[in-house]
Amino acid sequence: MTLLTPKSSGLGELGDRTLRKVRRRVMPLIVLLYFVAYLDRNNVGFAKLTMSEDIGLNAAAYGLGAGIFFLGYALLEVPSNAGMYRFGARKWLARILITWGLFATAMCLVNGESTYFIVRFLLGAAEAGFFPAILFYLTLWFPAAQRVTVLGIFILAQPVSNALGAPVSGLLLQMDGVMGLQGWQWLYIIEGIPAILLGLLTPILMTDRPRDAKWLETDERNWLAATMDAELAAKSQSGKHSFLAGLKDKRTLVYSALYFGLVCGIYGLGLWMPTIVAALGKFSTAEIGFIVFIPYAVAAVFVYFWSKRADRTGKRAWHAAVSMVLAGAGLLAAGYLLPVNPVLAMIGLTVSAMGIYGAIAPFLSMPSAALTGAAAASGLALVNSLGNLGGFISPYAVGLLKDATGSNQSGLLFLSLCLCLTAAATYLYARKRPEGDAALDPAVAAAAAADPAKVS
C-alpha cells in the first residue's frame, strides 16, 4: 500500500475539480470573517496610543484589560462550540458575529479601568467559539492531507488584518472632535460595525455540510461527502469520537498546553506592536500605522509559502517548531536592538511576525488531524480555550515588565523564551506522531487506497 504524499493530491480530476470549487466558495467568506474578528480583538493596541491618556490607563492596566478578553473567551469556548455542533455553523456563527460586533462598538463607551475591563471581557465572551467553529467547519470540507494549505489561507487573515488594519486604525485615531467623539472612539465604532453586517449575511452565504452544497454538481457533491465520510471512518474508533471524548483525550490537553505557549507570542507581540513601534521614534499615529503594516505584510507572504511547504512535505511538527524558533530569534534580536538601531529592530520584529504567523497553520493542523467528528468540535474548542489563556497572560506580563523596567526589552525577551520552549516541546511531542508527520498517518494511506467516487 502506497502512502498518499502531499507532493501529489492523488484525488483524480473529480477530486481536484471539486476542491477547487470548494476553496473558491468557502474560503473567501471564512477569511473575511476572521479578518474582521482579528481586527476587532487587536484594534485595542492602536486605540491605546490615545485612549490610555484619556481614560487613565498605565501599561499594566492596559495589558490586563487587553488580556481579559481571553478570560471571557476561554470560559465560554467549549459551550459555544457545543451550540455550533448542535445548531450548525451558519446559525451559530451569525449569532457570534452579531454579539461580538455589538460589544466591539461598545468599546467606544469605556471611561476608565473598570468599564475597560468589563467590556473587553464581554467582547471575549461574545466571540467565544468562533475560531474552533471555523477549524471544525474546515474539517467537514477538506481532507486532512490538504488541510494545512487551507488553514494557511485562513490564517493569512491574521497578518493581513493587522497589515491593512494598522494604517486604517492610525488614520481613524486622527478623527478627534468629529461629532464630539475622540479618534479612538471612532476606531471602535467603524471597525465594529462590519461584524454585525456579516452576521446578517452569513446564514445566506454559508453552507453547513457538503451534502447541502447545491452549488456543487451531483457527482462532485457525492464525491466530497463520500471522501469525508471515508476519512472519518478510517480515523474513528468506537467511543473515541464523541463530544465528551474530545474533552478527555490526552492529545487535546497536550496541544492545549503547547498552543498556550504559541498564543503568548501571537498576542504578546500583536497587542503591543503599535507601542513598540512608537518607541522607535517620534511618529504620528498615521505614521505608526503605516510602519506596523510592514512586518505583517511580509508575514502574510511567508505564511502562504510556509503552509504550502508544510502540506507538500507533510512535516507539520517540524514546520511549526522551526517557525516558532524563527519568531523567538526575531524577538530576541528586536529586544537587544531597540535601544541601538530602530531599523534593525524593525527587521527583528518583521522576522518575529513571520515566525509567529507561519507557525499557526502547521500547528493547528495537528489537533484537527488527530481528532474527528464531535470529538474534533469539543477538542479543538478546548485547545483554543486553554491555549488562548496565553492571550491573557502575555499582554499583562509584558505590561508589568514595561512598568517595572521602563523599557520594552524585557517583555520581548519573555516572549522569545515562551516561543523557543514551546518550539522544542512541540517538536519532541509531535515529530513521531501521525498528525505531526503525514507519512505516519494511517488515514492518509486509507484515503489513497479508497475509491470514494464509487460510493453513493
Largest sheet: none
What percent strand? under 5%
Structural class: mainly alpha
* Shape annotation: globular
Report the end-to-end length measured between terminal Cα atoms: 24 Å
State the helicity in percent bands. over 70%
What is the tally of beta strands? Answer: 0
Mean pLDDT across all amino acids: 82
**SSE arrangement, N to C:** HHHHHHHHHHHHHHHHHHHH
Count of helical stretches: 20
Radius of gyration: 21 Å
Low-confidence stretches: 1-9, 447-456
Structure explained in plain terms:
- With 456 residues, the protein is an all-alpha fold.
- Helices cover 78% and strands 0% of the residues.
- It is built from 20 helices and no strands.
- The protein has helices at residues 12-42, 44-55, 59-87, 89-106, 113-127, 130-141, 147-155, 157-172, 183-205, 218-235, 243-248, 250-270, 273-278, 285-313, 316-337, 342-370, 373-387, 390-405, 409-430, 442-449.
- The protein is globular and about 60 Å long.
What's the gist of this structure?
The protein has 456 residues and is mostly helical.
